[in-house]
Amino acid sequence: MIKTATAALPDDDTPSNFVVTYTIHVTNTGNVPLSDVSVIDDLNTTFPNGWTLLGTGTPAAPALNNSNAVGIALNGAATGQLIDPLVDTLGVDEDFEIVLVVSFTPTDGESDYNNTVDVTGVSPAGTGVVSTSTAPVTIDEDPSLSVIKTSGA
Fold first, then answer.
1. pLDDT per position as a tens digit, 94-116
2. Residue 97: which of 11, 32, 23, 35 has the closest Cα?
3. Is 52 helix (H, G, I), strand (E, B) or coil?
4. Residues forming beta bridges with residue 9, ordered by sequence position
């Protein structure tokens, strides 16, 4: 599993926020199908001052075997389970991608943020597998001030 992130850019709609796009790519690299596939992304830990899901990329939800994958329903209030682990099976060499566009409020004194996603699954023999990936994001600050003082002479 690989998680990547774009650079954090200023949020045009919320000037105090920044926007980042995360891409989570999950592949079954084993030799057996995996059931109970679970993708968990805890954005609350990464962005404790708040965040909002602005949208999802294409596809909006993973398309797995026998799947009715839930839509991305993250709202800033809870850890996000990104797919329904009760109905999803990921076959050998099958993969899927989840894209999250997130606006977040920076934490004072912080410019680096590491967001981790965990993926789990279960083999037909009941063996659990886990994969973790972290995507770093850095805010490229551009602080600036301007002042003009005039007098009415």
1. 888 888 888 999 998 889 999 98
2. 23
3. strand
4. 19
Distance CA 62, CA 70 (A): 8
Number of neighbours of residue 55 by Cβ within 10 angstroms: 12
Closest CA to 116 of 12, 7, 22: 22
Closest by alpha carbon to 92, among 124, 45, 62, 115?
Answer: 124
Question: Which amino acid is residue 7, in one-letter code?
Answer: A
Tokens matching residue 27: 């592949």
Which tokens sit at 9? 């850019």
Give per-residue burial for 14-45: e unless 16+ CB within 10 Å, then b.
eeebbbbbbebebbbeeeebbbbbbbbbebee
Tens-digit pLDDT profile for residues 59-86: 444 444 333 333 344 434 344 556 655 5
